[in-house]
Amino acid sequence: MPMRFGDDALLWAAWLYYEDGLTQGEIAQKMGLSRASVNTWLADARARGLVNIEIQPEKFRAVALSRALKEHFGLQDCLVIPSEGGAMPLIERLGQAGAMALKRLVRPGDTLAVTWGRTVLALADALHHPGLADIRVVQATGSTTARIPWTPEACASRLASALGARWIPLAVPAIVSSPAVRDLLMQEPVLAEQLQVLGEASRIVMGISSMRPESTIHSSGFLEGIDQRSHYQDAVGSLLGRFISARGELVSGPVNDRTIGLDLAGLRAISQKIAVAGGMDKVAAILAALRGGYIDVLITDAATARGVLTADGWQESPRRNSPDPVSPAAARGYGKKLINAARDAVDESLAGALLAHENLIAPVPGTGRAVMAQQGPRPGKVGIVIGGGAGHEPGFWGYVGRGCADAAVIGNIFAAPPPGPILAASRAVHGGAGLLYIYGNFSGDVMNFDMAREMAEAEGIAVRQIVTCDDIASSSPDSRASRRGVAGNVFVFRIAGAAADQGASLETCEALARRAASRVYTMGLALEPARLPDSSRPGYSLGPGEMEIGVGVHGEPGEMRHAMVPADDAADLLLDRILAEMAPARGDRVAVLVNSLGATPAMELYILNRRIRQRLKAHGVSVSHSLVGPYYTSLDMEGVSLSLLHLDDDLAALLDHPCTTPALQISPPVK
């Protein structure tokens, strides 16, 4: 052996292999040894502890979650990828993972059915696996609107090309104008032949659609002209253009008898159902599909996997060899709360808030969960109505008053307010210039505020709506409309209220609030999850040396688990994600909200604020408005969220406008 390697050949072989990345053959040639010797030394290096291979925690969690999903739902197989991975969007990464899985699963002679959607098309684009004999790829449904690139024929034809397979289309629309037209087409011999091939499918590759407005089922045209609330209000997702409830059962409606393609009974009969879907907006839909028995192999991401498991009552087991073991007595399983009865907590809390701020807010007559500004409606002024679930105090009643909202409607804890109180609040603050509704992007809020809008418009009240989507952890940038609305709400309420107080028209108030909503970004982390009053138990568990990154404000877990870090590093984790997406230029201005999620004390918030201001200054971004405190909480969660509003001259001026509410007081500028 050459002397330049010293006396410890095993050490040098390990270094060349694990650090320099040489192959065993290259090491053997370089060191003048046989390849067998190198192989033996490398194994010995690991056995003696000279080399310690450590799996990255995020990847370990993905493996653990995959096993948990497989066991909990009785799946044939499951692949869970990390929720983050460089600059590539989640849809493309899921497509790559799906392509990897399909290479392992597909066999010569298979008839492979294919649905449509963004993720299915990404899978087809990522796949290259020709050479299998006698493969057929058949569309699972007829064709959809050509306004989208991920049509059934595009997904099926590209997948067939990637496999070198024969493509069998369904040469009809997926949805036709009437059941009679469907029955007539089903009698056509060509379609009957194609449907026979579909009935012979041994596997199916499918996406899963949520019911969000920007989801595949909406963009594909299935619900055009259909009142979703009247016919599909119980649906949480869609497979093959068929709608399913939270229990995985078919939700019947006018589309069912007009759809041509595989139905849910036919789907269940296929021996291997491969679903590729991810993103927190799809948790309910994926869980419903699992409960209905429509998935055998699932490819998803870690955050979605944990969301699905948690929503079905799964409790994460602590990992073995935890570096910071704690006794059961020290573990925070239960929380102590100063309440009377859990069922009365929201009403009693709101009653106390009205008494504490009786000079600013008053109850809306005839309701128990709506408050309005004491000053009442002003003739000719646009009314701003906000709302959402309880548990976010001082949201939402804390932002009612001069220069902000005119009314707020409160639901149960983490639950949307019903349409009735929203309509009552709308009537109470209507000054003749119309109303602007502002609320977070949660399915219940979207549905109930939309119903209230329709009822208000039937009474002749003009209503516009802003749905906030500032939580960057809940969806990728290319699916921003799927994101949750969280603490960034505070800035949007403020902008809209200031514009209305200055006498702006409904159209102008809407445009300014929409601009603010599109320019605000929020990212949160938790050290301990929130505990609901009725159980005093957390929705998920965190170890003493762990924190959750990307948490929601309704008790949702985050997108990743992270080791505890000092305050400066925690601030960097939040700020770096926001700056990467906001992409401000040097000289730009922002408004900053360092927000306690409930139990984080002021001392810690100000430590974080100090670091955030340091980083923004180094980035060349100035801070012209700053809020630090519990502005939008999640019950007793120990955690923090950071919101940045990317300012322009109009938005900055509106933030300076005087405001007097229970949670915000902005004085007129001193002249």
UniProtKB/TrEMBL annotation:
Listed GO MF terms: kinase activity
Cited PROSITE patterns: DHAK
UniProt xrefs under Pfam families: Dak1 (PF02733), Sigma70_r4_2 (PF08281), Sugar-bind (PF04198)
InterPro entries hit by this protein: DhaK_dom, Dihydroxyacetone_Kinase, NagB/RpiA_transferase-like, RNA_pol_sigma70_r4_t2, RNA_pol_sigma_r3/r4-like, Sugar-bd_dom_put, WH-like_DNA-bd_sf
Entry protein name: Bifunctional sugar-binding transcriptional regulator/dihydroxyacetone kinase subunit DhaK
UniProt key word Kinase: yes
Keyword Zinc-finger: no
Alphabetical keyword list: Kinase, Transferase
Source organism (scientific name): Pseudogemmobacter faecipullorum
Record domain DhaK: where: 341-664
Domain of life: Bacteria
